[in-house]
UniProtKB/TrEMBL annotation:
Residues 559-585 are annotated as: Disordered. The keyword ATP-binding does not apply. It comes from the Eukaryota. Residues 389-610 form the Dihydroxy-acid/6-phosphogluconate dehydratase C-terminal domain. Residues 52-374 form the Dihydroxy-acid/6-phosphogluconate dehydratase N-terminal domain. Pfam families: ILV_EDD_C, ILVD_EDD_N. PROSITE patterns: ILVD_EDD_1. This is Dihydroxy-acid dehydratase. Belongs to the IlvD/Edd family. InterPro entries: Dihydro-acid_dehy_C, DiOHA_6PGluconate_deHydtase_CS, ILV_EDD_C, ILV_EDD_N, IlvD/EDD_N, Sugar_Degrad_Dehydratases. Residues 575-585 have a biased composition (Basic and acidic residues). Keywords: Iron, Iron-sulfur, Lyase, Metal-binding.
């Protein structure tokens, strides 16, 4: 039988998809398709298999990524779902990023992964795509790439790890990594104990088992209407429920594609509307999510070409926070682990709990074709005693509102972020004190425990130089340690401010993501000096340095002169010495090669999501975001 694909008298229908989609041109489309089939047949495929809709499966397995250890099993389960629904699964890799094996930081590589994801979705003949991911930066990178590529897309979360147990006490990465290491340093537990703890903190594959960035992003995926509500965000990586989510995702991708082909647009740009993102922000606040998720959400939102979506800013995150109670009792804000949240009913239970508050935009679309409201109607949830312990009822929240707050003021004209619910000394949420300034991480490490450091419990610890460009990748160094001499006096919390990030598993009165960052020669945060009075009022959402406008202008002008002298004369310059290396990154970035050069020339500021300007809807030339 003549194969119509090679019949030169018949045009190749472009809407059929499968091997026929996104044809690279080798002269003419018939020949391109002919060649494509030559090569894919090298893998043993038949014409019959190749006539099916193709569902790509992005496999992010890596020997360096325990958070994705179950990816091979998920791929198998996913394939089962795709085949049973009449599609052809095609698995392919992208880069894999784990928090501990991504020097200098995983954040530095997030945009690279998003570009890899976008371009491989676009390049290959896939009609729809499932992306397997879980570790902190993966889900953001995949959502960013998928929105830009805009083919029908469903994320498949790898799922949290199980908690471990040491002497009958549950432990889990990574809130307990910090707690236990602090106990060991303080001599409260010995070498044998810490070795036992090390064996148990990650007792199975899967993502960190607390409400850190990975879990936060998984819950956001459910809130965006992109995964199964009961298990998609919370089922453990090693559970059979997780494999069923994978099989379901496979069938759902084929269903989604057939809807798409029969006229209901099912691309991410169409499914994800303003309502979807406002729901995501509501959930972020209700779970007491990671501050990192704010950076990721802004990056995802700023990929979307619809002005209704990309007009969402940090201001919306703060406003939604004021109305949204914190309901989930998980570490680091509370006590439980992700498996507890799953056993309590997961995101389905949380969404049903929130429903009567009217905070959810129920008309938001989902991957099923139903609205969020219709999905909730068709999957009821009845609360039970245990569920209300982990998912607090609206009337008795863990924290009444504003778990995550956005502050502004002359110190951060474009905004900064604090997780008020994780503050350990609530008096610090309204506070004035003298600045104790560190120019960068090295300076901090050298002086923080100096017995002669001029610091008291009322001081405000300022760490400059860890912003997106100042310390490429914006490290999670924002949890500045309490100076040892104050720690010895029993001080457990101080107001700490930086242009960097903090691990989603950490807590304290910590202000992060100051924008513009200190390395920017125009930044007011960059000219703060020891002894300047810093004032924070979280209730009023303000953060300022009490110096006059004239003094600010004078210091910025002086700094620019020093910078000019510094770049003119190299490291030896007298004028540049006090700059402590902070400006090196800023001035040298035009000369950097490779990915580092691309990163430093194009990364935008924290309030925009630290994406590359040329990948955002704003486009090239908006890198510094001023
Ligand atoms: Fe991967 Fe924590 S290290 S989720
Ligand atoms: Mg993390």
């Amino acid at each position: 039988k003549a194969n119509s694909d090679y019949d030169l008298s018949r045009p190749i229908p472009s809407d059929v998809g499968g091997m026929r989609s996104s044809l690279a041109s080798y002269g003419d489309p018939h020949f391109s398709l002919f060649l494509r089939k030559v090569f894919i047949k090298g893998l043993g495929y038949t014409e019959e298999a190749l006539s099916k809709p193709i569902i790509g499966i992005i496999n992010t397995f890596s020997a360096f990524n325990p958070c994705h250890a179950n990816a091979p099993q998920l791929v198998e389960a996913c394939k089962r779902g795709i085949l049973s629904a009449g599609g052809l699964p095609m698995e392919f890799p992208t880069i894999s990023i784990h928090e501990s094996f991504s020097s200098p930081t995983s954040m530095y590589l997030r945009n690279l992964m998003s570009m890899d994801t976008e371009e491989m979705i676009r390049a290959q003949p896939v009609d729809a795509v499932i992306a397997i991911g879980g570790c902190d930066k993966t889900v953001p990178a995949q959502l960013m790439g998928a929105i830009s590529a805009n083919k029908p897309f469903i994320p498949l979360i790898t799922g949290p790890m199980m908690p471990g147990s040491v002497k009958g006490v549950r432990v889990g990465a990574c809130t307990d990594c910090r707690n236990n290491w602090a106990k060991y340093r303080a001599g409260e537990i010995d070498l044998e104990d810490i070795m036992a703890v090390n064996e148990e903190l990650a007792p199975t594959g899967g993502t960190c088992g607390v409400m850190g960035t990975a879990s936060t992003m998984a819950c956001i995926v459910a809130a965006l209407g992109l995964t199964d509500l009961r298990s998609g965000a919370t089922a453990a990586a090693v559970s059979s429920a997780r494999l069923r989510v994978a099989e379901h995702t496979g069938t759902a991708a084929v269903t989604m594609l057939s809807k798409h082909k029969s006229g209901t647009t099912m691309t991410p740009q169409s499914i994800l509307t303003r309502d979807s993102f406002l729901n995501a922000i509501t959930i972020l606040q209700a779970i007491g999510g990671s501050t990192n998720a704010i950076v990721h959400l802004m990056a995802i939102i700023n990929r979307h070409p619809d002005p209704n979506v990309h007009s969402i800013t940090l201001k919306d995150i703060d406003e939604i926070g004021r109305r949204t109670p914190l309901l989930i009792d998980l570490k680091p804000s509370g006590e439980g682990y992700m498996t507890d949240f799953h056993n309590a009913g997961g995101m389905l239970a949380l969404l049903h709990t929130l429903r009567p508050s009217g905070l959810l935009r129920e008309q938001a679309r989902t991957y099923t074709g139903q609205t969020l409201g219709e999905m909730l109607d068709s999957t009821p949830f009845k609360s039970f005693a245990y569920s209300s312990q982990i998912i607090r009822p609206l009337a008795v929240p863990l924290y009444p509102a504003s778990s995550l707050c956005v502050l502004r003021g002359n110190l951060a004209p474009n905004g900064c972020v604090t997780k008020a619910s994780a503050s350990k000394d609530r008096r610090l949420l309204k506070h004035s004190g003298p600045a104790c300034v560190f120019a960068n991480s090295k300076d901090l490490a050298e002086r923080i425990d100096d017995p002669n450091l001029n610091v008291s419990k009322d001081s405000v610890l300022i760490l400059q130089g860890i912003g997106p460009i100042g310390n490429p990748g914006m490290p999670e160094a924002g949890l500045i340690p309490i100076p040892r001499k104050l720690g010895a006096q029993g001080v457990v919390d101080m107001l700490r401010i930086s242009d960097g990030r903090m691990s989603g598993t950490a807590g304290g009165t910590v202000v992060l993501h100051v924008s513009p960052e200190s390395a920017d020669p125009e930044s007011v945060f960059g000219i703060v000096r020891d002894g300047d009075t810093i004032t924070i009022d979280v209730e009023a959402r303000t953060l300022s340095v009490d110096i006059s406008h004239e003094e600010i202008k004078k210091r910025i002008a002086h700094r620019k002169e020093s910078l000019a002298a510094h770049s003119g004369q190299g490291q030896a310059s007298e004028a540049g010495k006090h700059l402590n290396g902070r400006e090196d990154a800023w001035s040298d970035r035009t000369r950097m090669r490779g990915y580092r050069g691309l990163y430093e020339r194009h990364v935008n500021q924290g309030h925009l999501g630290c994406d590359f300007d040329f990948l955002t809807w704003q486009g090239p030339g908006t890198g510094e975001g001023r």
